[in-house]
């Protein structure tokens, strides 16, 4: 898991730097790492990262092969009390919006979890 998350973070930083969006890099890296780590940790099968820039908003999303909602079962009321399960709490706290949707492609099921980060 660690290597995939590291590759995503470094690639995202490079992309943002090349497009003049380095000011978003620290927060975007954190969000991407949490989304990808969640996809890898809680699902079986492939996972991937998608980054999209539109009208001053950076959308970061991770897809995976598990169609279940992204909330971990029995998520603690206070994420500071848990060893794990803080990923989506961080995504909620650090992004301007987030959500998820089920995916159905070529007979395969999965989900896409995304968050938005405004440039302003």
From TrEMBL:
<dbReference type="InterPro" id="IPR003594">
    <property type="entry name" value="HATPase_dom"/>
</dbReference>
<keyword id="KW-0547">Nucleotide-binding</keyword>
<dbReference type="InterPro" id="IPR050267">
    <property type="entry name" value="Anti-sigma-factor_SerPK"/>
</dbReference>
<dbReference type="InterPro" id="IPR036890">
    <property type="entry name" value="HATPase_C_sf"/>
</dbReference>
<dbReference type="GO" id="GO:0005524">
    <property type="term" value="F:ATP binding"/>
</dbReference>
<dbReference type="GO" id="GO:0004674">
    <property type="term" value="F:protein serine/threonine kinase activity"/>
</dbReference>
<dbReference type="Pfam" id="PF13581">
    <property type="entry name" value="HATPase_c_2"/>
</dbReference>
<keyword id="KW-0808">Transferase</keyword>
<keyword id="KW-0067">ATP-binding</keyword>
<keyword id="KW-0418">Kinase</keyword>
<feature type="region of interest" description="Disordered">
    <location>
        <begin position="64"/>
        <end position="84"/>
    </location>
</feature>
<feature type="domain" description="Histidine kinase/HSP90-like ATPase">
    <location>
        <begin position="25"/>
        <end position="98"/>
    </location>
</feature>
<protein>
    <submittedName>
        <fullName>ATP-binding protein</fullName>
    </submittedName>
</protein>
<keyword id="KW-0723">Serine/threonine-protein kinase</keyword>
């Amino acid at each position: 898991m660690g290597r995939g998350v590291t590759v995503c973070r470094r690639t995202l930083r490079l992309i943002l730097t090349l497009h003049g969006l380095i000011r978003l890099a620290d927060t975007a890296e954190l969000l991407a790492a949490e989304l990808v780590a969640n996809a890898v940790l809680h699902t079986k099968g492939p996972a991937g990262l998608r980054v999209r820039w539109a009208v001053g908003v950076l959308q970061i999303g991770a897809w995976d092969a598990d169609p279940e909602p992204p909330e971990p079962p029995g998520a603690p009321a206070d994420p500071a009390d848990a060893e794990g399960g803080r990923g989506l709490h961080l995504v909620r706290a650090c992004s301007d919006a987030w959500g998820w949707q089920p995916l159905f492609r070529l007979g395969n099921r999965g989900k896409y979890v995304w968050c938005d980060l405004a440039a302003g």
